[in-house]
């Protein structure tokens, strides 16, 4: 595994000038954010040694290197999901590579179903904690000491100081942000009504099919994480209307400018 990380990192480093200070993962329907980046280099996942290849609609599958808010960043336009059939080690592989590229902070975004009754479609939820029980932990297997300890602490998976900065930025821009707990599920099915109720009962405010494995891999390496969910549908809705992937992408797209503002300002302050 360490050799694979080293090879992928070396391949990317050869093609870029400088070192990224932050890594950004763009979730479903949030790819427009990429246009905010002054892209210097675009690398297709399929060209990077040992990188898995993204298949899901709405994920274009490339690594972008460039400038945002005057800082060098690397962004993943498209991520790898467990439901696509990837091993959790593959899901988190790019996160490990970004760490070895030099990033000091990781910014994650996703589309999620809201189960907190106070949420509405289009809300941003800053993730302040997660529940990982329903998706396999990406650290299962031999521990690579160079990456981190066998039994990582998880009392603060999402950096309190980054959350405080985000809240200040949102308040200054009059952007309403919610805060809450994200639970990861495997997907690809959306939840049944009983499952959405259970998500709410277990103490989670939103549910989605990504992010948690990436966060765990980052925390394992001592990399501070900031993550935001865009609430694209409501699990506890009254009507019997169904949820579609298209509806999720559309809601994410509409909420994206708010997310982009927060990420851009946070990166400016790094
Ligand atoms: N459930 C799980 N994942 C999701 C949802 C949802 O309701 N919306 C967007 N991603």
Describe this structure in words.
The protein is an alpha/beta fold and 270 residues long. It has one domain (2-268): Nucleoside phosphorylase domain (Rossmann fold, 3-Layer(aba) Sandwich), CATH 3.40.50.1580. Helix content is 30%, strand content 24%. The protein is built from six helices and nine strands. It has helices spanning 2-13, 88-101, 160-172, 193-201, 212-220, 245-268; strands at 22-26, 38-44, 62-68, 71-77, 105-114, 124-131, 177-184, 206-208, 225-234. A five-stranded mixed β-barrel has the order 5-8-7-6-9, surrounded by four helices. Strand 6 (124-131), helix 3 and strand 7 form a beta-alpha-beta unit. Helix 1 (2-13) crosses helix 2 (88-101), helix 2 (88-101) crosses helix 5 (212-220) and helix 3 packs across helix 6. The radius of gyration is 17 Å and the shape is globular. The two termini are 30 Å apart. The model has no long low-confidence stretch (mean pLDDT 93). Bound molecules: hypoxanthine. Hypoxanthine binds next to strand 5, strand 8 and strand 9. Residues 111-113, 185, 187, 190-191, 207-209, 232-233, 235, 243, 248 line the site of hypoxanthine (HPA).
Q: On the 0-100 scale, what is the average pLDDT?
A: 93
**How many angstroms separate the termini?**
30 Å
What is the assembly state of the chains in this entry? single chain
Structural class: alpha/beta
Q: Given this structure, which CATH class is correct?
A: Alpha Beta
Overall shape: it is globular
The fourth-level CATH homologous superfamily is: Nucleoside phosphorylase domain
Bound molecules: hypoxanthine
Cα-based radius of gyration, to the nearest Å: 17 Å
Give me the CATH fold name.
Answer: Rossmann fold
């Amino acid at each position: 595994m360490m050799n694979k990380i080293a090879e992928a990192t070396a391949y990317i480093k050869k093609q870029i000038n400088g070192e990224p200070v932050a890594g950004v993962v763009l979730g479903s329907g949030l790819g427009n954010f990429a246009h905010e980046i002054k892209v210097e280099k675009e690398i297709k996942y399929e060209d990077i040694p040992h990188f898995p290849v993204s298949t899901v609609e709405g994920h274009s599958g490339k690594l972008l290197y460039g400038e945002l808010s005057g800082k060098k960043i690397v962004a993943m336009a498209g991520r790898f999901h467990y439901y696509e059939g990837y091993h959790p080690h593959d899901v988190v592989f790019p996160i490990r590579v970004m760490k070895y590229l030099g990033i000091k902070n990781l910014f994650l975004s996703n589309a999620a179903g809201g189960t907190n009754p106070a949420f509405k479609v289009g809300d941003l939820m800053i993730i302040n904690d997660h529940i990982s029980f329903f998706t396999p932990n990406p650290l299962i297997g031999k521990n690579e000491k160079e990456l981190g300890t066998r039994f990582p602490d998880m009392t603060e998976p999402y950096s309190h100081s980054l959350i405080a900065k985000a809240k200040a930025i949102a308040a200054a821009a009059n952007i309403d942000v919610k805060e809450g707990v994200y639970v990861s599920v495997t997907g690809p099915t959306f939840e049944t009504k009983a499952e959405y109720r259970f998500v709410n009962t277990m103490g989670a405010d939103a549910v989605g099919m990504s992010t948690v494995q990436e966060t765990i891999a980052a925390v394992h390496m001592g990399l501070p994480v900031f993550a935001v969910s865009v609430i694209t549908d409501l699990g506890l809705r009254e009507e019997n209307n169904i949820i579609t992937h298209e509806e999720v992408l559309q809601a994410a797209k509409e909420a994206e400018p708010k997310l982009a503002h927060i990420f851009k300002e946070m990166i400016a302050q790094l």
